[in-house]
Amino acid sequence: MAFVDELKDMARGRLVAVAEDAPLIEVARRLHAGTDIVVVCAPSGALVGILTKTDLVAHFVTAAGLEGPVGAALVARTEVVTCRLDDELHAVWRLMQSRDLKNIPIVDPADRPIGILNARDALMTLLLDTEIEERLLRDYVMGLGYR
């Protein structure tokens, strides 16, 4: 059985966070190639929302733009699906699938973001885990290594 913890190093490398009062232009600068999601944090470090490229474009189309006094928290999605390091990876993967999510924040017990779980990484880990289980079962049935 795989857990989110197995992907923590990759997830930490994907984490991009801004303060809740960060200007949207700062968020836009952080959403470069390879970064799909920015987490918005309160002064305590707790997650208060997320912003994606799609969120910024939608705001830009319907509002004044990226400049000005609008802070990240005012535009961020506040209903955020998160997971924890001790969550079972297959359950998190099913949740991501059911909600069509590409990335979700990993949070600590105080809801501070510690990484971003990417669906591709989760799937690759689950596939590898399944392959290992199948190989062990096949070896057991064939009697290999059990003499």
Describe the protein's architecture and organization.
A three-stranded mixed sheet has the order 1-2-3. The chain has a two-stranded antiparallel ribbon with strand order 4-5. Helix content is about 40%, strand content about 15%. The chain has one domain (about 5-140): Roll (CBS-domain), CATH 3.10.580. With about 150 residues, the chain is an alpha+beta fold. The mean pLDDT is about 85. It has six helices and five strands; from the N terminus they run αβαββαααββα. Helix 5 crosses helix 6.
Key features of this structure:
elongated, CBS-domain, single chain, 147 residues, three-stranded mixed β-sheet, 6 helices
Number of helices: 6
Rounded average pLDDT = 86
CATH topology: CBS-domain
Uncertain stretches: none
What is the ordering of alpha helices and beta strands? HEHEEHHHEEH
CATH homologous superfamily (4th level) name: CBS-domain
CATH class placement? Alpha Beta
Cα-to-Cα separation, first versus last residue = 26 Å
Largest sheet, in brief, is: 3 strands, mixed
Q: What count of domains describes the coordinates?
A: 1
- The value of Rg in angstroms is 19 Å
Can you tell me the overall shape? elongated
The CATH architecture is: Roll
Tell me the β content: 15-25%
Helix content: 40-55%
How many beta-strand segments?
Answer: 5
With strands numbered from the N-terminus, the spatial order across the biggest sheet is 1-2-3
Instruction: Indicate the structural class.
Output: alpha+beta
Topology record:
Elements: H1 8-14, E1 17-19, H2 24-30, E2 37-41, E3 47-52, H3 53-62, H4 72-75, H5 89-98, E4 103-107, E5 113-118, H6 119-142
Parallel strand pairs: 1-2
Antiparallel strand pairs: 2-3, 4-5
